[in-house]
Amino acid sequence: MVYTFHTDPGHGWLEVPTSQLVDLGIEHNISTYSYVQNETAYLEEDCDAGVFVDAYKKKHGSQPEYAEKYSEHTFIRNLSPFRST
Fold first, then answer.
1. DSSP per-residue codes, 26-84
2. How many domains are contained in the chain?
3. What is the model's pTM?
4. What span, in angstroms and rounded, lies between the C-alpha atoms of 56 and 49?
5. SS3 category, 11
6. Residues near 58 by beta carbon (within 8 Å), at least 6 away in sequence
7. pLDDT tens per residue across span 9-61
8. 19: enclosing H helix or E strand
């Protein structure tokens, strides 16, 4: 799977299905600096994306692949903050 790394002029977020956060057992480690929409989390680049990458590498033995997607005005900033359930 290739993940999307969304960026705008000031920040970046890694797009990850919330089911994968649960599968990796890290859903409670994600901060409210990340965002969520439906079943997709947008993990804040400075902290939460690293939590995901570390857990992914531990489980799969390799770093996840991602493709960058730049937007001058990303929709992500208008989403609800991530809150684990």
1. -GGG--TTSEEETTEEEEETTTHHHHHHHHHHHHHSSPPEEEEEE-TT-GGGGSEEP--
2. 1
3. 0.94
4. 10
5. coil
6. none
7. 999 999 999 999 999 999 999 999 999 999 999 999 999 999 999 999 999 99
8. helix 18-24
Question: Rounded to an integer, what distance in angstroms lies between the CA atom of residue 39 and that of residue 80?
Answer: 12
Tokens at 42, concatenated: 């947008």
φ, ψ for residue 10, nearest 5 deg = -120, -15
User: What does R_g of the chain's alpha carbons equal in angstroms?
Assistant: 12
Tokens linked to 23: 């599968």
Q: Which residues on adjacent β-strands are paired with residue 2?
A: 65
Written as six digits, the tokens of 11 are: 């920040």
Question: Quick one: DSSP state of residue 25?
Answer: T
What residue numbers bound the domain in which 54 lies? 2-81
